[in-house]
Amino acid sequence: MTKALETVSVKKFYGIGTGTIKAVNDVSVSVQAGEFVALVGPSGSGKTTLLAMLAGLLSPSDGRILIDGRDVGKMSDAERTSFRREKIGFTFQANNLVPYLTALENVELMLRLNGKLDKRGQARAKELLVRLGLGDRLNNLPRQLSGGQQQRVAIARALIHNPSVVLADEPTASLDTERAFQAVETFANLIHEQNRAGIMVTHDLRMVRYADRVISMKDGQVARVLEHCSEIEALAASMQGDIQSLPVDTLTASMQGKIPSAADPKREALPWTPNALPASTM
């Protein structure tokens, strides 16, 4: 397998008064092409800040972020925008579909931004939406789609331009349980089939059953990595809420179902603005 994404001792610090907040502190991880990774942890653990740096929305205070071997942190703003448009796909919990474009046009827009909207691209956009069960919704506007259907359009948009890395920020936050499982299972299958590197931030530990690895963060650092299918399945089966109440040394207990589920807390918001993600959000 090819290493599509790698972070090397990445840090993100913020100065607050005379103190320093270590949002992300010395994180080194890698994701292979064709691998789907779940990034979990309590609010304030640093997972959303890390995801924002992987997307090129934030620059690290120190360390390196490599995508296809290129250091994103060393790029100029213009270079990073162009690189993000070509190499990174992104889905938000709010979908951010363009309201006056149809489902098909929302997906095609990603190709248009990259100058690749030809007949082949149009056919691929249609095929991808059909694969996602939206063949009869191609010409519907977002307001004419259910939440689950909108999320599937967002997944298609994130994958249509053949990115090396696909990032998902709480993709099931606005979906009911059945549609949430369907969305994540479909997303994972496409990551594997298309040989992309996928990372999903989630508070819903039930969704990690579709991941190849689970990376748990706490206080800005990687606290634990679960790689064995039995561990991941046990964690997903035993939890109904957030990992908020799981210290590192009690993860094993949680896998055995000894930790009661916790209510889903408020999460930190991804630093998104209309101009921040011209490629990934459209």
Outline of this structure?
With 282 residues, the chain is an alpha/beta fold.
Biggest sheet, strands in spatial order? 6-7-8-3-9-10
Major beta sheet, specifics? 6 strands, mixed
Tell me what portion of residues adopts beta-strand conformation: 15-25%
Mean model confidence by pLDDT: 84
Label the CATH architecture of one domain.
Answer: 3-Layer(aba) Sandwich
**Name of the level-1 CATH class of one domain:** Alpha Beta
| Beginning-to-end CA distance, first to last residue | 30 Å
Query: Going by CATH, what is the homologous superfamily of one domain?
Result: P-loop containing nucleotide triphosphate hydrolases
Which structural class do the helices and strands define? Answer: alpha/beta
Give the low-pLDDT segments.
Answer: 241-282
Report what the structure shows.
It contains 8 helices and 10 strands. With 282 residues, the chain is of the alpha/beta class. Helix 3 (103-113) packs across helix 4 (119-131), helix 3 packs parallel to helix 5 (147-159) and helix 5 (147-159) runs parallel beside helix 6 (177-194). A 6-stranded mixed beta sheet has the order 6-7-8-3-9-10, with helices on both faces. The chain has a 4-stranded antiparallel beta sheet with strand order 2-1-4-5, with helices on one face. The chain has a domain at 3-98 and 146-226 and 246-255: Rossmann fold. The longest helix has 18 residues, at 177-194. A hairpin with a 2-residue loop joins strand 4 (62-67) and strand 5. The chain starts with a strand and ends in a 27-residue tail after the last helix.
